[in-house]
Amino acid sequence: MQYLADVTVELKSGMLDPEGNTIKRALGHLGYETNDVKTAKKFTIDLDAESFDDARQNVDEMCQKLIANPIIHNYTIDLREA
Amino acid sequence: MQYLADVTVELKSGMLDPEGNTIKRALGHLGYETNDVKTAKKFTIDLDAESFDDARQNVDEMCQKLIANPIIHNYTIDLREA
């Protein structure tokens, strides 16, 4: 079965987000005041697996081993059949 | 009223995604075969606005003027009250 996993990798709270701060400042210069801008990465992974649970476990391992850095990131996985 | 906008900025279909390709290859080296990996950016914007429609229009203008490049990106806005 084919699955699509949307993985969102965010900075843990308290981590500095210089890209977000830069965008907030640049938006201010354009006349758009904001309270805060936070950045994150999204990865859409297309994979084959035996079952939904297998797909979820594989994607979770991918996140732990490569995609996210557990020291600074939280990640969420949104999995669906393709 | 305070609003939170989740803006997702993706590459238009047909655009090369070298970061996604690199992750796909690296996952393969770790033993995880995937069909495809696509990358995107997510921005969470915390802003004040008079109404939901005002907030949406402001965020749309921010995307067009700064956050997305309309030549290579599609973007979606998911807006909610904070």
TrEMBL record, chains A, B:
Catalytic activity: N(2)-formyl-N(1)-(5-phospho-beta-D-ribosyl)glycinamide + L-glutamine + ATP + H2O = 2-formamido-N(1)-(5-O-phospho-beta-D-ribosyl)acetamidine + L-glutamate + ADP + phosphate + H(+)
Keywords carried by this UniProt record: ATP-binding, Cytoplasm, Ligase, Nucleotide-binding, Purine biosynthesis
Listed EC numbers: 6.3.5.3
SUPFAM superfamilies named among the record's database cross-references: PurS-like (SSF82697)
GO CC annotations, alphabetized: cytoplasm
Keyword RNA-binding: no
Pathway the protein contributes to: Purine metabolism; IMP biosynthesis via de novo pathway; 5-amino-1-(5-phospho-D-ribosyl)imidazole from N(2)-formyl-N(1)-(5-phospho-D-ribosyl)glycinamide: step 1/2
Highest rank taxon of the organism: Archaea
Pfam families: PurS
Molecular functions per Gene Ontology: ATP binding; phosphoribosylformylglycinamidine synthase activity
Subcellular location as annotated: Cytoplasm
Swiss-Prot/TrEMBL GO biological process terms: 'de novo' IMP biosynthetic process
InterPro entries: PurS (IPR003850), PurS-like_sf (IPR036604)
Function: Part of the phosphoribosylformylglycinamidine synthase complex involved in the purines biosynthetic pathway. Catalyzes the ATP-dependent conversion of formylglycinamide ribonucleotide (FGAR) and glutamine to yield formylglycinamidine ribonucleotide (FGAM) and glutamate. The FGAM synthase complex is composed of three subunits. PurQ produces an ammonia molecule by converting glutamine to glutamate. PurL transfers the ammonia molecule to FGAR to form FGAM in an ATP-dependent manner.
Family statement drawn from the similarity comment of this UniProt entry: Belongs to the PurS family.
Record-linked NCBIfam families: phosphoribosylformylglycinamidine synthase subunit PurS, PRK05974.1
Alphabetized PANTHER family for the sequence: PHOSPHORIBOSYLFORMYLGLYCINAMIDINE SYNTHASE SUBUNIT PURS
Subunit note: Part of the FGAM synthase complex composed of 1 PurL, 1 PurQ and 2 PurS subunits.
Name of protein: Phosphoribosylformylglycinamidine synthase subunit PurS
Gene: purS
